[in-house]
Amino acid sequence: MAGRRRRSSPDSEARRSSARTTRVRMTGEERRQQLLDVARALFAEKGFEAASIEEIAHRAGVSKPVVYEHFGGKEGIYAVVVDREMRALLDSMVSALSAGHPRALLEQAAGALLEYIDTSTDGFRILVRDSPVASTTGTFSSLLNDIASQVEHILGLQFSAKGYDAKLAPLYSQALVGMVALVGQWWLEARKPKKDEVAAHLVNIAWNGLSHLEHKPKLGSWR
Asked: What's the Cα-to-Cα distance from 189 to each of 128, 145, 185, 208, rounded to whole Å?
């Protein structure tokens, strides 16, 4: 009969009911975390410049104004993502530096960085990319400086105890942390050998060098 409404089948009614049930409204904090998770994956995949608010919103299933409401723009959400990753890596590195023996210290530092790369690959990819020019967030180099300052304190105590010039502790801490960080960036893509083996080789070259330090090294003294 013309104009009569078509009855929905039981299956279609059930599907609509299920959709209404599963579309649970997120709290503000839940939505914020969802957007951060989506943005983190996108920044790791494409980098800051290639990522867009449109794609973040699309992947999160929201409109662009929702992203702007929470973060003000792409720079804002990027800053929060970077800050969280920097704090996570710094906390894991600093908490690992607990042993008093210098060789154990090296093992802990190398192991902590490689563990972070292995378990938070997206986060590390974001940290080692170039930050946007206008960004006020920290960079990977500033993060390494924070870690080096922790190593510097421990090295300074060891240098003083063994008759070395403690004023040189900052130089050695930067060298050691820089070596571990650069190898970490290489291992991010290589993934061979296994992380424990990489850490062992890092400690090998660093420790065997440190254990035979000259008190007053000079260029050309090996001739």
From this structure: 12, 23, 7, 27
Q: Which of 93, 99, 94, 55 is nearest to 77 (CA)?
A: 55
Please indicate, yes or no, whether the overall pTM of this predicted structure exceeds 0.90: no
- For 10, what's the count of Cα atoms within 13 Å in the CB-facing half-sphere? 0
Domains and CATH numbers, the chain: 82-210 (1.10.357)
Q: Could you tell me the two tokens for 168?
A: 């040189």
Which pair of tokens denotes residue 41? 């994956």
Residue 99 confidence (pLDDT): 61
Interval 182-209: pLDDT, tens: 999 999 999 999 999 999 999 999 888 8
Residue with the two structure tokens 């065997």:
208
Scanning the chain, the segments in alpha helix (DSSP H) are 10-22, 28-50, 53-60, 64-71, 74-96, 102-119, 121-128, 140-161, 169-190, 195-210
What sections of 72-139 are H helices per DSSP?
74-96, 102-119, 121-128
